Please model this.
Amino acid sequence: MKRYYITTPIYYVNSAPHIGTALTTIVADACARFQKQRGREVYFLTGTDENAPKVHRVAQERGVPTQQFVDEMAEVFERAWRALHIEYDIFIRTTEERHKRVVSEVFRRLREQGDIYKGSYQGWYCISCETFFASSKIDESKTCPDCGKPLEWRDELCYYFRLSDYESRLREHILANPQFIQPEVRRNETLGFINEGLQDIAVSRTGSDWGVPVPDDPNSGVVYVWFDALLNYLTATGWLERGEAYLDTWPPDLQLMGKDILPRFHATIWPAMLMALGLPLPERLYGHGWWIVNKQKMSKSLGNVYAPLEVAQSLADAAGCELPYAVDAFRYYMLREMPTDADAEFSLEGFEARYNGDLANDLGNLLHRTLSMMHRYFEGRVPDGARLDAELADLFAQQAARVTEAFEAVDFPRGLREAWQIIGAVNRYYDEQAPWTLMKQGNTERAGQVLYAGLIAARLLGGLSEPVMPQVAREIARQLNLSSVPCWSDAVVMNAIPTGHILQEPKPIFPRLQPQRSTGGTPVQAQPTLERDTQATATITMPDTITIDEFKRLQIRIATVKAAEPVPKSTKLLKLTLDVGGEERTIVAGIAEDYTPEQVVGKQIPVLVNLQPALIRGIVSEGMMLAADVDGKAVLLHPDREVPSGSGVR
Ligand code: ME8
Model:
């Protein structure tokens, strides 16, 4: 049986792992665990790209021999991935001899068959992206169209790969195989790139001897680092060493990467190289979007590059959560908010809100309250005849099928949303059935039935969330006293916990993060004025006067209220859905004693839109409405004629 082969890119080792490289690796790990859970044999590859000139340059700048530098950095990557619970099967390094042999052999073969030829090159080169750009792609500034850094003029004899020969075959393959490039937006980008016309690419470089020497032609420098790096996926299968046996792994089933390295490198050059070698192409290439921070690209100069382990550690410290569960919480956040088609904002506040909301309030609380009641009412034993109601069993099975479909499509945000519907359903069921009242009424049997739904839901969620939070899944299984985390097909077996089964004592996995103890020194803020009924409280101290520059930091906009509803169990709060110039936002406002939902829908109100998000009664509130305060009562403010939603207030 062929193994399910999953790859991440191999990472440049000139800097340490950050939340961007962690994203690709965590997505790949979750896909690998998901396939394993479903019973497939998986081969999961990651590694480091060490032959790049920029890696050599950084080593030189630090005064360290390059080999020593890459050895140390590869270790940094391996340690970071292990700490993030990444369970790869092979870690490849492009400085390994067996990889260099593959690069030389491929280069030789393609040169012999005429796919690689010698020519001369004049053009603009970006060292940071390791890419040449045609003059038509650059402007006066002579900066890189991708990363903006200055380009260098190069004039050299070099080898070319006949990429142009593969243009129509590539286009045909992409059109005939809709699953080949995902998501759809990347497929369209790639077709757009190919339709502009492909030119042959230079695949050797002079100027530095760090890398794989061009075979049999020592004066021609080294093999272009992308040509070298892409071949790692082949090296890792044992191609060249294992005869036909490498076909137990080849071709890759799923190659994951960020959007920047998909259209040109992985969806054009890479399949063209494989076509030239006569090898089957990967089944599926998936390119996720980017994390942005404060609406900007991450960069060292902006100081907004986050290290994944530090983020997890600071949550563990602030919440008093054990580190393995804080790491899993970080993995959950990465996957729940994962940029798929578009880019997505990474923020510590967003992480904290997901932690308190989805993990402490929802998942953790479901397990904890269910086990607590089982112990209080049934001495921690599953009572006789406990079975899941048929309606809930159907709902659980349907949600599990949706999660499976979404995870298969690498759509973790959707999959996790679907999984969390199970928690919502059990909470509603508890509220309706009120097992605590049933107990008071002496209806012990029915109370046992109701709580059994919570146990089955927790068991199912443990199974479904294992790819995302492997240590948490193990802890859920331990508290339920199961011998292991159920695999995918087993997790959906309802009524699988037998009568008389003994449960462990509950132990909180995700202690709530208190607002004054949040991560990174940026507390989750409470709403300062109209909000009096929140779980979060904070004191705002205002000096007597502020400068105009301080005032300018407040972004106040006119929003149109699209929908309003009371916040459950609160007499004071309304949840408002707003249109702020085409962007939808949710805020929680303390106006329920003064206005009904119907009275506010359709109204235009001023909203402070750059307030840090706050978690209020389990709802992430993304801004604060402004209203007049008359003896503690809120009075809405409106513009004196209708204005476009999103208009600024000055
Ligand atoms: O490109 N958000 O390596 P690399 C999301 N060595 N993903 C991000 C990101 C961000 N802010 N920043 C970077 C290379 N990434 C080559 C690969 S494979 C044969 C050779 C992602 O270390 C980026 O999109 O520069 C890419 O997938 C990955 O990090 C590796 O980046």
Remarks:
- Confidence is low (pLDDT under 50) at residues 521-543.
